[in-house]
Amino acid sequence: xxxxxxxxxxxxxxxxxxNLFYADKTEYIYNLVSDSQPKLLCRPFxxxxxxxxxxxxxxxxxxRELFAGLWIDSSDYQFIKHPIIRLNLGFAEPLNSEExxxxxxxxxxxxxxxxxxxIVHLNPHLPFEDLIFNLYxxxxxxxxxxxxxEPNGDPGGVKVVVLIDDYDAPxxxxxxxxxxxxxxxxxxxxxxxxxxxxxxYCRFILLTGQTNLGSCCDGVxxxxxxxxxxxxxxxxxxxxxxxxxxxxxADQFPSLAPALTMRNQFKPGQTMADLxxxxxxxxxxxxxxxxxxxxxxTKDKITRVMCPYSILSFFAKQTFxxxxxxxxxDDFLKGVIAQKPERFIGDDFSSYSKxxxxxxxxxxxxxxxxxxxxxxxxEVSLSHGLMSYGFKPPxxxxxxxxxxxxxxxxxxxxxxxxxxxxxxxxxxxxxxxDQVDWEEAFALAVARLTFRPPRPxxxxxxxxxxxxxxxxxxxxxxxxxxxxxxxxxVKETFAAKKNRAGHPPQxxxxxx
Length: 512
Prior knowledge:
Layout: H1 12-17, H2 26-32, E1 39-42, H3 49-60, E2 84-88, H4 97-114, H5 127-139, E3 160-165, H6 169-172, H7 178-193, E4 202-209, E5 216-217, E6 220-221, E7 226-227, H8 242-262, H9 272-283, E8 286-287, H10 290-294, E9 304-305, H11 308-317, H12 323-327, H13 330-339, H14 365-371, E10 376-383, E11 386-392, H15 396-410, H16 416-431, H17 435-447, H18 458-471, H19 486-493
Parallel strand pairs: 1-4, 1-7, 2-3, 3-4
Antiparallel strand pairs: 5-6, 8-9, 10-11
């Protein structure tokens, strides 16, 4: 039966009621909730974190009928109803610490009101403490004989579930203002650390967001919470695996293939296998499993996932496009590039010592772009007793978006017309054997550079030119022969080549 496609549907109930496509993640969820240890899950925008939170809310509300036919329905899971505190910190506007605290207290007061609990006793400094304790007491009334006594150890009974979505969003909203971001980071860390004293009253606690900036401060992390973001067994918890995407392809292929053919993105006679390859080129490649990629024995078991927002948008609109990037606030990526532009000149994003982020002020570029979805894991290695992580763009969609952002931010090419005109000039220069043409092409790249490099020199400007023509859509074959002059080196190492099959047409990489 053909499923309906809805790109953004954070309601698990609506998906199940309206025959929308759902990739069954309930086996992952069963493992997730099998113990009560608080957990942290980081995934980029568009990977279904809010849907996961909503699914967990229905699960802990005991709504078994919504899970009929899914993996967990045939498991030994007991659909027991629990009191639930659900909080989303993905506010549209940046908030200072005082405004954020007011918003959080207001949401928790509404939860208390909906449960018929008094709201005047919420501690404004530790707002969760009173609410969790009062919810527990409502669902587990005390014996009058023991009134006033605090239980030791695990009190048992029906416990509280805490689900916090976009837990780090208030920090990310202020990354361009480091001092404010750090103030928010300190306040949120204080809030999340308060759960450590409330665990015995909680059945399950989950924090989800894009980065781990909310779970640490000044190098100190939440010791009581388990960060499952890059554990192998949860690598496919959010995102579509190839097998799950294949279900969609088989479901939609009869109508999808003709639509793509009309747009010259698919050739008559091509098969479903050809379409799978094209989809993989455009959207596959996200890896959230640092342990497996490090182990040579298990590298063939690496779980690669695709962004659900991109995949569902592709099937809904039946054309290849830069969906995830269009949905982003491009000020974030441009701001990161502009913050330290020299890092994007010749940086292959390798040799970072950790995946985690600790400081909102000047976070390392590689891990920041990895956690926010612009890069993925390329390699993990051990050298001299130290871990080393390397990153790369995961697929064609992200790679093209990266190129556009660099052209706009570092080379001030802000329109398609400017890009196409510059592509034509560079194409002509690269095809010429005239040294004057090469000098003009090189001078164009340097002249368009929007910042003053800290230590300019032959090597730096060679990298500028390499980045410039790469972002314009020309493949690069870099070598580094010694003792060559600048122009001789450029002429030998950079050549325009025809793009591989399945890529957008050469010289039009931004109009797929």
